[in-house]
Amino acid sequence: MSEILTIAMPKGRIFEEAVDLLRKAGYLLPPEFDESRKLIIEIEEEGLRFILAKPTDVPTYVEHGVADIGIAGKDVMLEEERDVYELLDLQISGCYLAVAGLPNTKMNDVAPKIATKYPNVAAAYFREQGEQVEIIKLNGSIELAPIIGLADRIVDIVSTGRTLVENGLVEYERIVDVTSRLIVNPVSYRIKDKMINDLVARLSKVVSVEVN
Ligand code: PRP
Question: Which helix (H) or strand (E) holds 202?
Answer without folding.
Answer: helix 193-211
